[in-house]
Amino acid sequence: MKKYLVLSFLFLLAFVFICAGIDLWQPENYAAQSVPSYITLDNTPQNNLTTDKGASLGRVLFYDKQLSLDGSQACASCHHQEFAFSDTAQLSDGYKGGKTVRHAMRLVNNRFSNEIHYFWNERAATLEEQTTMPIQDHVEMGFSGSQGDPGIDSLIKRMYSLSYYPKLFKEVFGDTLITESRMQFAMGQFVRSIQSFDTKFDEGLAQAGNLNNDFPNYTGLENTGKRLFLAPPPTGGAGCQGCHKAPEFDIDPNTHNNGVIHVAGSVDDIDLDNTKAPSLRDLFNANGQLNGPLMHNGEFLTLMDVINHYDSIPNDPRNTNLDNRLRGPGGNGTQQLGLTNAQKQALVAFIKTLSGSDVYTNPKWSDPFNSDGSLTLSGLDGFEPLAQAVLQLYPNPSRGNFLIECDQALNKLEIFDQSGRHIITFDCHNSYRKELSLQAPAGIYYVTILLSNGTKQTKKLVLSQ
Ligand code: HEC
Ligand code: HEC
Q1: Residue 276 · residue 69 · CB < 8 Å
Q2: Separation in Å, CA 164 to CA 169, 196, 238
Q3: Closest-CA residue to 327 (of 318, 339, 315)
Q4: Ligand 2 mean position, distance from CA 230 (Å)
Q5: For labelling, which of 143, 179, 311, 313 has a CA lying 20 to 30 Å from the CA of 349?
Q6: For 263-311, how does the pLDDT look when each residue is reduced to its tens digit (9 = 90+)?
Q7: 416-427: per-residue pLDDT in tens?
Q8: Which atom of ligand 2 lies at the shortest distance from residue 326's CA?
Q9: What number does the ligand 2 atom closest to the CA of 86 have?
Q10: Cis ω on the peptide bond leading into residue 368 (within 30° of 0)?
Q11: Cα separation of 139 and 394, whole Å?
């Protein structure tokens, strides 16, 4: 009997062991997830197609607290899976007790949108570019390279010292080199993989075959709400579809602000540039609770507050960037919909049908780290670090400014011209990455790289005019 108990305990242990961690032998499916046929938008860039291994590395990065200066914050500290990768706090805590300026955005269905700028004010041009901005933010994760804090070079150095990153980067990119752009590729793939289509809305659309038909699986209230959402105000609708387009519910890229102009927590300060919203899917979790306060400033605590806002947009003369669709007839004043209470309830009921359940629970988007902060990697038994350092020097040809990246610490660089004459020496202070500027005539040069482990490599560098 005892033997069976021990056996079943071992079995349980093995099960827990298999569940945690990253298995690159049989990675989770990120690249070939099924997407309903009526979803036509897909902003995956040609230079960063999603692979299962690439997104798995992205998942590790997303959950790794080592990506913050003091080891306290991961992306997931503000973007929680249980809240559709948002935060219930109006403003999130940064790594040193600071607070973010805006509310943390949900990260659901980013791949399925026409808008490819990121943040509420669209200041990041691509998702890839966005992903390393929080790491280099003075408040969020701290590798800012300013105010006395080290920059991303220091993070890369730290990552080489964590056993799992050289292995993962080699598995995904073919060699152990860790660079900011490779981190961006991997995190971009992971964030783009987060999708939610198992909703009552999707069931209904599949059954009805057309957005404008009543959905057979809906209550009368939900169908009324859908009609109000889709129809423009002149025909008695609420006009939401004008900016948050079904079936993706992504934001129209050419939207101005929606009249929510206060800086979070301030009565006087205004910010007119918040013109992006995440998809309106998964505002609520599977239990019908809101995943967090709404809008860039987290000003609204209920969806009814939001609907009351659109029902009667405040007319603030300082708002010079209000979207024309939210002005009154003839472009005068602001939108006054005059919705009845029942109509408002119907809109809420409809928007509640846009929530799925898989996104909150699927292990492929969950924390892969063990509770002691270690990471279990399987499927990488044959990993051997390369004897020869991996080194990249680019752009090459270059006009004089170039970057050297290496998977081993650099001691110094010496540059020689074609006749072997020494031009200059750069000290690298054991970094893994060095930006250089060489003022010299166009031509061919040789860069001798001395690694901190005592070995040497030489690369040809072409300087152009
Ligand atoms: C300290 C909290 C915090 C951390 C840590 C954090 N974020 Fe965010 N995230 C935010 C906030 C707040 C916003 C909105 C900021 C704004 O618009 O100014 C945001 C916005 C985003 C967006 C934009 C979404 C959209 O639809 O435009 C993405 C993507 C994102 N974060 C991914 C990440 C990734 C990847 C990491 C880790 C490298 C990360 N975040 C770390 C709080 C955080
Ligand atoms: C003119 C374009 C426009 C129209 C029309 C519009 N919205 Fe918005 N919506 C926006 C913008 C822009 C934001 C982000 C604003 C911000 O946070 O400052 C937003 C944000 C939201 C948010 C908050 C999302 C979040 O993640 O916090 C909700 C909810 C919302 N809108 C619902 C609606 C509903 C319901 C309607 C119809 C009654 C509607 N919107 C009509 C442009 C529009």
Answers
A1: no
A2: 9, 30, 51
A3: 315
A4: 14
A5: 313
A6: 998 989 999 999 999 999 999 998 899 999 999 999 999 999 999 999 9
A7: 998 889 999 999
A8: 1
A9: 26
A10: no
A11: 31
